[in-house]
Amino acid sequence: QSLCVHLNYPLYIRSVPTQGELKFHYTVHTSLDVVEEKISGVGKALADQRELYLGLLYPTEDYKVYGYVTNSKVKFVIVVDSSNTSLRDNEIRSMFRKLHNSFTDVMCNPFYNPGDPIQSKAFDSIVSTMMVQAC
Amino acid sequence: MADDALFEFLHMEIVALVYKEQATREDIDKERVTCVSTLDAMGFRVGQGMIERFTKDCPTFKDDLDLMKFLCKDFWSTIFKKQIDNLRTNHQGTYVLQDNKFALLTQFSSGKQYLEEAPKYLAFSCGLIRGALSNLGLESVVTAEVSLMPSCKFMPNLKSLIN
């Protein structure tokens, strides 16, 4: 399972378990294209662009990739095992909300320069809690 | 209630401090430009953070005009407790935001006496607008002018990054 905060280059990546991280990097990058496609479908005032990108098959496992875009064009991507069917839509939505709230706090921190990699411990701990809950 | 006054006083002190630090330089013209850019840069960073917080629960904006309207209504009211009084545009990226009673200028006397000093107090707010727009994906140059206190106009000139 992995999570990524993107501004067209990654600001933050975290995964559990930590082996196979490169695979997640790749998954996340390819999913960015789909996100771009979704947000340029203008004319709809949707609250957030959410994608359920099923069907990204790998030889060993299936993954589900979820995306979320803020008004400031920052993208959040979550990758979960398909075998983990206990995660429902609502839960994913609330995970993204928590992420967004946490990210807003990072943004408002005067010691943080927008565009830098995120090094906030508070952000780290929120992510850890979420990933533990989801697994 | 005291919140507004707190920020107004802080802002006045920030302007005074920035100018005092530059006063030791001999080159007057350069001093002015440096001070204005310092204040603008401060406003920029603040604008970025604030817009992130305020747009957290908003739907995505349909177009630039929608975005400017949000700036004039919600953003301005949250920061300065009132909306922008007048928004004009040439539909080609230039906008004029007119505030007839700008919160940071109300403490000045309304005559012509301090008209020359007024731009110093607008630099931070120009940066604020620029930072907000930049975080929403719009690069811009924001200028401001005062002709009659306490009313002033901010003029963002947009160059959209989205396309």
TrEMBL record, chain A:
SUPFAM superfamilies: SNARE-like
Domain of life: Eukaryota
Compartments where located: Cytoplasm, Perinuclear region
Main location: cytoplasm
Keywords attached to this entry: ER-Golgi transport, Transport
GO cellular component: perinuclear region of cytoplasm
Any one of the GO BP annotations: endoplasmic reticulum to Golgi vesicle-mediated transport
The UniProt record lists the keyword rRNA-binding: no
InterPro entries per UniProt: Longin-like_dom_sf, Sedlin, TRAPPC2L
Keyword flag Ribosomal protein: no
Family note: Belongs to the TRAPP small subunits family. Sedlin subfamily.
Protein name (database record): Trafficking protein particle complex subunit 2-like protein
Organism in which the protein naturally occurs: Sinocyclocheilus rhinocerous
High-level lineage: Eukaryota, Metazoa, Chordata, Craniata, Vertebrata
Gene name as annotated: LOC107728038
UniProtKB/TrEMBL annotation, chain B:
Entry keyword set: Endoplasmic reticulum, Golgi apparatus, Neurogenesis
Known function: Component of a transport protein particle (TRAPP) complex that may function in specific stages of inter-organelle traffic. Specifically involved in the early development of neural circuitry, likely by controlling the frequency and amplitude of intracellular calcium transients implicated in the regulation of neuron differentiation and survival.
GO cellular component: cis-Golgi network; endoplasmic reticulum; trans-Golgi network; TRAPP complex
Organism: Sinocyclocheilus rhinocerous
InterPro entries on file: NO_sig/Golgi_transp_ligand-bd, TRAPP_component, TRAPPC6/Trs33
Magnesium as UniProt keyword: no
Gene field: LOC107758819
Primary residence: endoplasmic reticulum
Residue runs in coiled coils: none
SUPFAM superfamilies: Ligand-binding domain in the NO signalling and Golgi transport
Pfam families in the cross-refs: TRAPP
GO terms (BP aspect): endoplasmic reticulum to Golgi vesicle-mediated transport; nervous system development
Transmembrane segments: none
Localization per Swiss-Prot or TrEMBL: Endoplasmic reticulum; Golgi apparatus, cis-Golgi network
Family, per entry: Belongs to the TRAPP small subunits family. BET3 subfamily.
Name this polypeptide is given: Trafficking protein particle complex subunit 6B
